[in-house]
Amino acid sequence: MSHPVPRRGETPIVVAIDGTSASGKSTNARLVAAALGFVYVDTGAMYRTLAWYCLRRGVDLDDRKAVIGCCRKWKTSLECVDRQVRLLVDRYHPAREIRTAETSAATPKVAAIPQVRAWMKTKQRECLQFGNLVMEGRDIGSNVFPETDYKFYLDASLQERTRRRTAEGVQEDLAARDRRDSLRAAAPLMIPLGARVINNSNLTPEETSGRIIAEIRARLPARPGADTAAP
To answer: How far apart are CA 31 and CA 122, in angstroms?
Structure first.
């Protein structure tokens, strides 16, 4: 059963799910959000949207000033559809466009820019308007919502993560990606303070999400009006 919608004046709950590439963040965040009746937020999609927008406008992604200019001037808005937050550009949601190989390759470049990450942090915190959230990314518990009491960090062996990517038909140097994310000057990938670390190399998504859901439900009674019944 879902947790009640926050009452007026009550701060929504934020479940932060961070982790390495192919650690199952998206899959598990969706499962947790569905089980709890929370709103799901894919922050990676927001960075992909900016990358797509820059590519569409012919912006040189190595020109940081140009990328920052796009980020500051583009007309965006947030909407929540079927308990999922979307970032719209000129009221359009580029669902397919942000998943192309070209956009995927461009995204790490825009995501490494400090001013872009600052803009994204502000926009991601605005998602609180939609109520209780399950937000996944690489800096949610450490940077976007460091104050949340519900922090989880997912990881798996490099071999297992590579196997998962290959099964998706994607060839990616995950070791290099890990290094880039961890050494990034702005909001680098790290285990957030107080986060529960789950290595899911040998776990199914249902087992991984089950651990997260169980821990959250065990702690929700401390909040007035929490519903801890099993689904």
So the answer is: 25
* Protein fold of 43-130: Rossmann fold (3.40.50)
Q: CATH assignment of 13-38+132-222?
A: 3.40.50.300
CA dihedral 65, 145, 25, 79 (to 10 degrees): -70
pLDDT one-digit tens code per residue, 184-226: 777 788 899 999 999 999 999 999 999 999 999 998 855 544 4
DSSP secondary structure string, 19-70?
E-TTSSHHHHHHHHHHHHTPEEEEHHHHHHHHHHHHHHTT--TT-HHHHHHH
Sole residue written with tokens 């109520």: 131
Question: Is 13-38+132-222's fold the same as 43-130's?
Answer: yes
Question: Sign of torsion, CA 62 66 69 70?
Answer: negative
